Amino acid sequence: MLDLIPAIDIKDGACVRLKQGNLDKDITVYSQNPVEMAYRWAEMGAKRLHLVDLDGARSGRSANRDVINEILRSYGGLMEIDLGGGLRDLDTIEDYLDEGLRYAVIGTAAIKQPGFLANACSAFQDAIIVSLDARDGRVATDGWKKTSRVDVLEIARKFADLGPAFFLYTDISRDGMLCGVNVEATRRLAAATSVPVIASGGVRDIGDVVSLMEAEADGVSGVILGKALYEGTLDFREALNYVTGGGPVSDDDKL
């Protein structure tokens, strides 16, 4: 079954969404209380939750710890929670895992310090997600500010041997744009290794969920749901009903 994973992006303690990862403009604040937002998704039946520390992603060190730890303590027993942004050392990852985090998402550090990724995968088996964020097939780092020459498929094949739990693939050009997820690129990545892939970036509506369900056989295991949920172009209960085999829900059920 395709995992539906609501996202909470945290900046300055608030729940926000960006366009194409740009922290300098087009920031929309959806809630001043990310903890209440986590409760909303748990109440709707979410089994997983994706947290992003945007300040940490930019600075290279974990930020927003108080609100993140409150979410972990309150809902870590109800949902499998993953966190990305500023996780650049083993001690920080261990601290969050002790608070109830299920998966640590490593992105920039995986590209710049592959030895660190190897150590993390060894120390925290089945708890590491490698984030592969790409522009035109090339991996981006440093909070998406820099685009490397590293090919996504090439680096995924190398990282797969380290034993990460998942790859998280984001097409940056589509992120926050509500233009449709890049199913084919996600499918290619999933087919390239045995590591299951979580799709991210551009999800607009139930059609994207259905398309990704059709790619499950290739190794696509889940999808991050962000702006589509917050803007209302995708109804979480309807999507959950689809993936569990129920089909569309009625308008009365959405109330």
From TrEMBL:
Catalysed reactions, semicolon-separated: 1-(5-phospho-beta-D-ribosyl)-5-[(5-phospho-beta-D-ribosylamino)methylideneamino]imidazole-4-carboxamide = 5-[(5-phospho-1-deoxy-D-ribulos-1-ylimino)methylamino]-1-(5-phospho-beta-D-ribosyl)imidazole-4-carboxamide
Subcellular localization(s) per the UniProt record: Cytoplasm
Gene3D superfamilies to which the protein is assigned, alphabetical: Aldolase class I
GO MF term (any one): 1-(5-phosphoribosyl)-5-[(5-phosphoribosylamino)methylideneamino]imidazole-4-carboxamide isomerase activity
Keywords: Amino-acid biosynthesis, Cytoplasm, Histidine biosynthesis, Isomerase
Catalytic center residues: D9, D133
Main location: cytoplasm
EC numbers for this chain: 5.3.1.16
First-level EC class: isomerase
Highest taxon, organism lineage: Bacteria
Pathway assigned in UniProt: Amino-acid biosynthesis; L-histidine biosynthesis; L-histidine from 5-phospho-alpha-D-ribose 1-diphosphate: step 4/9
PANTHER family, A to Z: 1-(5-PHOSPHORIBOSYL)-5-[(5-PHOSPHORIBOSYLAMINO)METHYLIDENEAMINO] IMIDAZOLE-4-CARBOXAMIDE ISOMERASE
Family the entry assigns: Belongs to the HisA/HisF family.
Protein name (Swiss-Prot/TrEMBL): 1-(5-phosphoribosyl)-5-[(5-phosphoribosylamino)methylideneamino] imidazole-4-carboxamide isomerase
